[in-house]
Amino acid sequence: MTKKYFGTDGIRGEVNKGNMTAELAMCVGMAAGKYFTKGNHKHRVVIGKDTRLSGYLLEPALTSGFISMGMDVVLLGPMPTPAVAMLTRSLRADLGVMLTASHNQFSDNGIKLFDNTGNKLSDKIELEIEEGMINKPNKYLVSSKDLGRAERLKNAVGRYIEFSKNTFPKQLRLDGVKIVLDCANGAAYRTAPSVLWELGAEVIPVGISPNGTNINKDCGSTYPKTFCDKVIETGADIGIALDGDADRLIVCDEKGNIIDGDQVMAAIASNWYEKGRLKGGAVVSTLMSNLGLEMYIKSLGLKFERTNVGDRYVVAKMQEMGCNVGGEQSGHIVLTDFNTTGDGLVAALQILSILIEKNKMASVVFNSFEAYPQYLENVRYSEGQNPLKNKNVIEAISDGERLLNTLGRVLVRKSGTEPLIRVMAEGPDANVVNSVAKDIVSAIQASIIRV
Question: Which of 243, 400, 402, 403 has its CA 20 to 30 A from that of 127?
Fold first, then answer.
């Protein structure tokens, strides 16, 4: 059965258009509430959100849905996605919910769900919740005396700050380290600067003035120019940029050069391996990670496992293999010693601890491998179209695979969160890689025009 609402990372879309409405949010609350109210205990759900204006629309709708099913609701306000996962466990809640569209523009929003262990839901559970949404969950409404209640957790920010600080090595401090920190005008605008400052850093903050419509706008991990330029301007030692819900990061060195998620994973994995901390004898990433990372990890005598795109698939494979380091090139870094999902701030703290221990420039420390030339491009299409079934597109992909042969890769896939076709080509020869990818992009664009 194909999912109607859930994509690779929850439900997402433009607010007040299509599916992403207050009505849908309430329906999700009812259907998920029905699914997770099992047993005789008093049931609880934790709800966090990022800084989008539409959070004011969707939060009360979700709350109403859960209360109508007899669940108590704990409201966190603007908090990072990993904080919701952590607090779901800490508060012994049955379910956690994060309202966010991550790196998307402010007009989009989404709903991410976590189970009582702080893990994202499986495809099977998402399908069951969708079935509940379709089959009118209001027939399961509890009696008026059994309605749930809602309250705000006043110290949610402080709890996550202390949790994050405790992931940093106790014997280290950030005194004397100058850090540009870009919070994308998003969910971490209060927590991340406080954590780094309390650990001793000189923090130069960017993107900490959310107004409901400026999340990810010319800032954050998807717009690196802002924080990279600030690093050069201020002479900072390192730059860190989070995305809208702070479950991922990218880094730049003192020269303003980008350090992506692959280099972050390489640095943490090799450091933990040297210390005997790396578990499972492997690092887990996705199909998008660079071949250079794979070769580097294998050169350490470790295994390198790939999964489908999406940090929940990474987490599932990590749990299966007993690994504690995994992630995505885009900057979702999963360190299961600390949390069950990507956590941009916690990953940043591990990077900073390595920087201090090595006592070298970031450009030296975080340059573990030479990346293979890789070309990435997104092609937007209209809902209802399927360019990947077009004959010319299929031929372009096949031609590209033949040209790159066994030395490279072609990956063409639909985004699970936006109406985009993501095209990636990778190999040792940059000219061939670029040519292959551009031919595929042109074929996709031509197929869309003809529809």
Answer: 243
38's CB contacts (< 8 A; 6+ apart) are: none
Q: Which one of 64, 68, 102, 164 is the catalytic residue?
A: 102
User: Under CATH, which number does the domain 374-450 receive?
Assistant: 3.30.310.50
Are 86 and 400 in contact by the 8 Å Cβ rule? The answer is no
54 annotated active-site: no
User: pLDDT digit string (tens) for 363-373?
Assistant: 999 999 999 99
Q: How far apart are CA 203 and CA 239, in angstroms?
A: 10
- Would you call 198 helix, strand, or coil by DSSP? helix
Question: 375 with 425: CB under 8 angstroms?
Answer: yes
pLDDT digits (tens, 9 = 90+) for 90-135: 999 999 999 999 999 999 999 999 999 999 999 999 999 999 999 8
CA distance 46 to 94: 8
Give the span between the Cα atoms of 428 and 216, in whole angstroms. 33
From the candidate CATH numbers 3.20.20.70, 3.40.50.2000, 3.30.1180.10, 3.40.120.10, the one assigned to the domain spanning 160-365: 3.40.120.10
Q: How many angstroms separate the CA atoms of 165 and 143, rounded?
A: 44
**H-state helical runs in 310-429:** 311-321, 344-358, 362-365, 391-404
Give the per-residue pLDDT at 451. Answer: 43
